Automatic annotation (TrEMBL):
This is Disco-interacting protein 2 homolog A. Residues 13-320 form the AMP-dependent synthetase/ligase domain. Pfam families: AMP-binding. It comes from Seminavis robusta. Transmembrane segments: none annotated.
Length: 386
């Protein structure tokens, strides 16, 4: 892979080299295809969003909220912002059924980011604009999925070179240890981290994921890694998975996926539903079944191998943290048996030893090591509210 320094350049590269290659396919709860997008389509759509933002007066360093319902539409908003140096802030959109609680939360994050605009689908943007009459959000909602699309000739603008150390995005923590904090991620940090995640992906890899698209596992190790590596990934809504867990194995088997990832509970739930349905499933073609986001239980791994015919050495543990994005124990010569807890091992750009030191550095407002994320956005202000 060429020595690019921003994820936008990887999109440009694939749009030029493999213009008609499908990078993402979105399926519904029955595993029926609802949407798909090629590298060229994503390039053109993101260019349209970039043009719209420029017309609105956005400039390098401004922030925009990326608040789309589950689907592929958010990609154009995110890449469109990054193309012109605008910083995308990816968060869960307000739930239309919980506006009384969700809209104030959204407004607090938008104010913290200093965003004037929120990007979403046209339908959702219209609904939120109407809801803003009662619940102020402090932003103007912009629909991006119906913008006029112009064919483009992918090329690398010189200004990308100046983005390397600039924030490529702001990712908000869950708030489980206090109020949500926005973590600034530079373009360089993002590319380095994706490189570490993607080194096990070959050009023929196929992914199957239903993880949320807003941060860490879904956004970075799913969407961004696919664009980096130029591979095809089948995506679905996490809500659809919860409603019908067998959707996951449908995705893996129908598309012959080689890579998939989820928390321990999801694997356990899938195994339970397979047993209840008296259904057999075959994942023998899967080379990377990755556990992350919570402790990995030995009995789940053992049952997974037995029930789905997946080789034990093809099961991996990942560790993700908003301040570090994601990193993994993939492709290491010595495998540590899975017990109650997932084990963090050394990666080429960050080690488990550095993790505790990394936290102290962030608390002091300093940069972490290579591969770590940037500074905590408005750290002092947010900390005072915790």
């Amino acid at each position: 892979m060429k020595n690019f320094t921003t994820i936008v350049e990887f999109l440009n590269h694939h749009a030029l080299e493999s213009p008609e290659k499908i990078v993402f396919t979105w399926v519904d709860i029955t595993c029926k295809e609802q949407n798909k997008i090629t590298f060229t389509q994503l390039e053109d759509q993101s260019n349209a969003v970039a043009a719209r933002l420029l017309k609105l007066g956005c400039k390098k360093g401004d922030r925009v909220m990326i608040a789309y319902p589950f689907g592929l539409e958010f990609l154009a908003g995110m890449f469109g912002a990054m193309k012109i140096g605008v910083i995308p802030c990816s968060i869960y959109p307000p739930n239309p059924n919980q506006l009384k609680t969700d809209m104030p939360k959204f407004r607090r994050l938008a104010e913290d980011a200093g965003a004037k605009y929120a990007l979403s689908t046209s339908a959702f943007a219209t609904a939120m604009t109407a809801a803003s009459i009662l619940y102020k959000t402090g932003v103007s909602w912009i629909g991006t999925d119906k913008l006029s699309i112009k064919k483009s000739n992918p090329k690398k603008p010189k200004e990308y070179e100046t983005f390397v150390r600039e924030p490529g995005g702001i990712q908000y923590t869950s708030g489980s240890t206090g109020c949500p904090k926005g973590v600034m991620i530079s373009h360089n940090n993002l590319v380095e981290d994706i490189w570490a995640i993607s080194r096990v992906l070959g050009t023929n890899a196929v992914g199957a994921l239903w993880l949320p698209q807003y941060h860490d596992m879904g956004l970075v190790s799913g969407f961004m890694s696919a664009i980096y590596a130029g591979v095809h990934v089948i995506m679905a809504s996490p809500i659809d998975f919860i409603m019908r867990p067998l959707l996951w194995t449908d995705m893996v088997e129908i598309y012959q996926a080689t890579h998939t990832s989820a928390p321990n509970f999801a694997y356990a739930l899938l195994l339970k539903r397979l047993k209840q349905a008296n259904r057999k499933a075959n994942w023998s073609h899967v080379t990377h079944a990755m556990f992350a986001a919570e402790p990995t239980q030995r009995h789940v791994v053992e049952e997974l191998a037995q029930t789905l015919s997946i080789r034990r050495e093809h099961v991996y543990n990942l560790y993700g943290w908003p301040r570090l994005l994601c990193f993994s124990q993939e492709d290491l010569p010595t495998r540590i048996p899975v017990g109650l807890f997932a084990v963090v091992q050394q990666t080429p750009h960050l080690s488990s030893f550095e993790l505790s030191r990394m936290e102290r550095r962030l608390k002091k407002g300093k940069l972490g090591p290579s591969g770590s994320s940037h500074l905590v956005w408005h750290l002092r202000t947010m900390a005072s509210q915790s």
